């Protein structure tokens, strides 16, 4: 299960949990390892079984599958893992954590079919791996990733409001990679007025990638007629205006929006200060990519507004996230820190 956990953290966070799987033979030798690479791609179990087949495994009747999360019972963009496991004829399944989402229940399904299932192997580590995803799933809300590009004095814009470009080209390419994997990008009305961003996902050559995220603007004032993110199209065609200042309401509205053939399940909040602060204040941030560039702006918009924290005991605490490329990356002269909220009760 430790090997499955190490595989799981190679994947990206988002609409789906991080999951790793390992298939072993009757002697405990590893036949294949798999992990989930994000929404719409093979689940870890399928990745692992596919790799086992490619490696020449034809008889699964004496194999054991370790998986960090209970296999899903649900047909979505991918088939139910319980069916794939049953069809392959895997003898034993060892499960780490239970799936709190409506896709759970795989342990019981497999047992009814006669598969031997042992539940709760390294349960604590497996649950901790996806503690924020579990929380979001429990609240039936979409997963929130935050992008924050700032100077070393924690400012996201200069005094004249300009913020393009605080960070390096490599940092911006990284942001475009994150944009490609989310369902929606969210900014506030003032960022649209100030920066007029396109909010598109582009590859390293600057070309638009095939599946563009939904472009969402939050706030009560109108989105300027000529805003680039509209692309000259009416609302509902690639962009949406969420007429609210309440981040939870914005998430609920996004969750009922279909984009690219499925509901929005993962949003990238890109700012500015007011919108970011509202998400942090409401504890609705599940993952952070914090890009810090080596420049001092001295004055200008600070990254976050006053969140009402007055003592260290009230401080919002985050931990380095080892998943998806690790906790820190140098991007030209910038440092990108990958963070997640500290698990509740961690101190
Ligand atoms: N470096 C970066 O990564 C980055 C990214 C984005 C923006 N920026 C910079 O950030 C600056 C804009 O920051 P900002 O704070 O003014 O813009 P913002 O957060 O984009 O938009 C603020 C507006 O959003 C609406 N809003 C929605 N929810 C709100 C809430 N919970 N609380 C308060 N207002 C809410 C309000 O307008 P309504 O009256 O419409 O409700 C408010 O005036 C710009 O200079 C931009 O260049 C930097």
Automatic annotation (TrEMBL):
<keyword id="KW-0560">Oxidoreductase</keyword>
<comment type="similarity">
    <text>In the C-terminal section; belongs to the HTP reductase family.</text>
</comment>
<feature type="domain" description="CMP/dCMP-type deaminase">
    <location>
        <begin position="1"/>
        <end position="108"/>
    </location>
</feature>
<keyword id="KW-0378">Hydrolase</keyword>
<dbReference type="GO" id="GO:0008703">
    <property type="term" value="F:5-amino-6-(5-phosphoribosylamino)uracil reductase activity"/>
</dbReference>
<feature type="binding site">
    <location>
        <position position="149"/>
    </location>
    <ligand>
        <name>NADP(+)</name>
    </ligand>
</feature>
<feature type="binding site">
    <location>
        <position position="195"/>
    </location>
    <ligand>
        <name>NADP(+)</name>
    </ligand>
</feature>
<dbReference type="GO" id="GO:0009231">
    <property type="term" value="P:riboflavin biosynthetic process"/>
</dbReference>
<dbReference type="InterPro" id="IPR002734">
    <property type="entry name" value="RibDG_C"/>
</dbReference>
<feature type="binding site">
    <location>
        <position position="270"/>
    </location>
    <ligand>
        <name>substrate</name>
    </ligand>
</feature>
<comment type="pathway">
    <text>Cofactor biosynthesis; riboflavin biosynthesis; 5-amino-6-(D-ribitylamino)uracil from GTP: step 2/4.</text>
</comment>
<keyword id="KW-0686">Riboflavin biosynthesis</keyword>
<keyword id="KW-0521">NADP</keyword>
<comment type="similarity">
    <text>In the N-terminal section; belongs to the cytidine and deoxycytidylate deaminase family.</text>
</comment>
<dbReference type="InterPro" id="IPR016193">
    <property type="entry name" value="Cytidine_deaminase-like"/>
</dbReference>
<feature type="active site" description="Proton donor">
    <location>
        <position position="45"/>
    </location>
</feature>
<comment type="pathway">
    <text>Cofactor biosynthesis; riboflavin biosynthesis; 5-amino-6-(D-ribitylamino)uracil from GTP: step 3/4.</text>
</comment>
<feature type="binding site">
    <location>
        <begin position="272"/>
        <end position="278"/>
    </location>
    <ligand>
        <name>NADP(+)</name>
    </ligand>
</feature>
<dbReference type="InterPro" id="IPR024072">
    <property type="entry name" value="DHFR-like_dom_sf"/>
</dbReference>
<feature type="binding site">
    <location>
        <position position="81"/>
    </location>
    <ligand>
        <name>Zn(2+)</name>
    </ligand>
</feature>
<dbReference type="Pfam" id="PF00383">
    <property type="entry name" value="dCMP_cyt_deam_1"/>
</dbReference>
<keyword id="KW-0862">Zinc</keyword>
<dbReference type="InterPro" id="IPR004794">
    <property type="entry name" value="Eubact_RibD"/>
</dbReference>
<comment type="function">
    <text>Converts 2,5-diamino-6-(ribosylamino)-4(3h)-pyrimidinone 5'-phosphate into 5-amino-6-(ribosylamino)-2,4(1h,3h)-pyrimidinedione 5'-phosphate.</text>
</comment>
<dbReference type="InterPro" id="IPR002125">
    <property type="entry name" value="CMP_dCMP_dom"/>
</dbReference>
<feature type="binding site">
    <location>
        <position position="43"/>
    </location>
    <ligand>
        <name>Zn(2+)</name>
    </ligand>
</feature>
<dbReference type="Pfam" id="PF01872">
    <property type="entry name" value="RibD_C"/>
</dbReference>
<dbReference type="GO" id="GO:0046872">
    <property type="term" value="F:metal ion binding"/>
</dbReference>
<keyword id="KW-0511">Multifunctional enzyme</keyword>
<feature type="binding site">
    <location>
        <position position="165"/>
    </location>
    <ligand>
        <name>NADP(+)</name>
    </ligand>
</feature>
<keyword id="KW-0479">Metal-binding</keyword>
<dbReference type="InterPro" id="IPR050765">
    <property type="entry name" value="Riboflavin_Biosynth_HTPR"/>
</dbReference>
<feature type="binding site">
    <location>
        <position position="72"/>
    </location>
    <ligand>
        <name>Zn(2+)</name>
    </ligand>
</feature>
<feature type="binding site">
    <location>
        <position position="163"/>
    </location>
    <ligand>
        <name>substrate</name>
    </ligand>
</feature>
<feature type="binding site">
    <location>
        <position position="179"/>
    </location>
    <ligand>
        <name>substrate</name>
    </ligand>
</feature>
<feature type="binding site">
    <location>
        <position position="202"/>
    </location>
    <ligand>
        <name>substrate</name>
    </ligand>
</feature>
<dbReference type="GO" id="GO:0008835">
    <property type="term" value="F:diaminohydroxyphosphoribosylaminopyrimidine deaminase activity"/>
</dbReference>
<protein>
    <recommendedName>
        <fullName>Riboflavin biosynthesis protein RibD</fullName>
        <ecNumber>3.5.4.26</ecNumber>
        <ecNumber>1.1.1.193</ecNumber>
    </recommendedName>
</protein>
<feature type="binding site">
    <location>
        <position position="199"/>
    </location>
    <ligand>
        <name>NADP(+)</name>
    </ligand>
</feature>
<feature type="binding site">
    <location>
        <position position="191"/>
    </location>
    <ligand>
        <name>NADP(+)</name>
    </ligand>
</feature>
């Amino acid at each position: 299960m430790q090997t499955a956990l190490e595989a799981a953290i190679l994947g990206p966070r988002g609409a789906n949990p991080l999951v790793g799987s390992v298939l072993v033979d009757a002697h405990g030798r590893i036949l294949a390892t798999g992990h989930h690479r994000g929404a719409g791609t093979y689940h870890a179990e399928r990745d692992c079984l596919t790799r086992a087949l490619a490696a020449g495994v034809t008889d699964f009747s004496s194999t054991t599958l370790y998986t960090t999360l209970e296999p899903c019972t649900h047909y979505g963009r991918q088939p139910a893992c319980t069916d794939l496991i049953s069809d392959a004829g895997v003898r034993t399944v060892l499960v780490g954590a239970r799936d709190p989402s409506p896709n759970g229940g795989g342990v019981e399904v497999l047992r009814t079919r006669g598969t031997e299932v042992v539940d709760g192997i390294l349960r604590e580590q497996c649950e901790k791996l996806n503690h924020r995803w579990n929380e979001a799933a429990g609240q039936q809300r979409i997963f929130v990733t935050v992008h924050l590009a700032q100077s070393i004095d924690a400012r996201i814009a200069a005094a004249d409001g300009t913020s393009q470009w605080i960070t390096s080209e490599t940092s911006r390419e990284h942001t475009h990679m994150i944009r490609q994997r989310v369902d929606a990008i969210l900014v506030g009305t003032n960022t649209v007025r100030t920066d007029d961003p396109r909010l598109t996902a582009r590859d390293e050559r600057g070309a638009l990638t095939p599946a563009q995220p939904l472009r969402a603007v939050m706030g009560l004032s109108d989105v300027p007629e000529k805003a680039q993110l509209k692309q000259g199209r009416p609302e509902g065609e690639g962009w949406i205006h969420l007429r609210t200042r309440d981040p939870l309401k914005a998430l609920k509205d996004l969750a009922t929006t279909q984009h690219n053939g499925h509901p929005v399940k993962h949003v990238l909040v890109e700012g500015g200060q007011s919108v970011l602060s509202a998400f942090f204040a409401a504890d609705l941030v599940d993952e952070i990519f914090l890009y810090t560039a080596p420049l001092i702006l001295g004055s200008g918009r600070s990254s976050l507004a006053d969140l009402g924290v007055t003592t260290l005991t009230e401080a919002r605490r985050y931990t380095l996230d080892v998943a998806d490329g690790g906790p820190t990356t140098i991007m030209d002269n910038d440092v990108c820190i990958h963070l997640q909220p500290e698990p509740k009760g961690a101190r």
